[in-house]
Amino acid sequence: MDKFDLVISSQDWHPQETVHFEKWPVHCVAGTDGAEFHSALNSDKITLRLKKGTDNKDDGYSAFEATNINFGEYLVNNHVNTLYICGLTTDYCVKESALDSIKKGIHTYVITDAIAAVNAERGDDKKALNEMYNSGCILVESSEI
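Above: the chain sequence. Below: its structure as tokens.
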């Protein structure tokens, strides 16, 4: 995080009852300890926290689906034209955020050694990386930044 002037996080903030939990185990329920960042993460460096997955009828995988702020508008207003994306989960949230970033014309890097996949089906991580790469994302390791 020290390499960046602006650090933005997205945070699942699910309602207790949501269609999301028909596919996934209950996790990141709004207002609970399970929705908070891991204690080892230095969250003092975070400039903006995006809350996503707040709708009980939607999964809310992409950071661009945040409900507490219009993320795309925020990036424009702050003259951000490049994003470095890392986090959970490669094959869902990371992928959808990266693809939405590309669609908005943002130079998008995915930090491959700072992501982790669910792999609901074997190889989902590789499929997601290929999809991101083919859409225009640049895949880098943290040592290359």
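The beta strands are 8-12, 48-52, 82-88, 107-116, 138-140.
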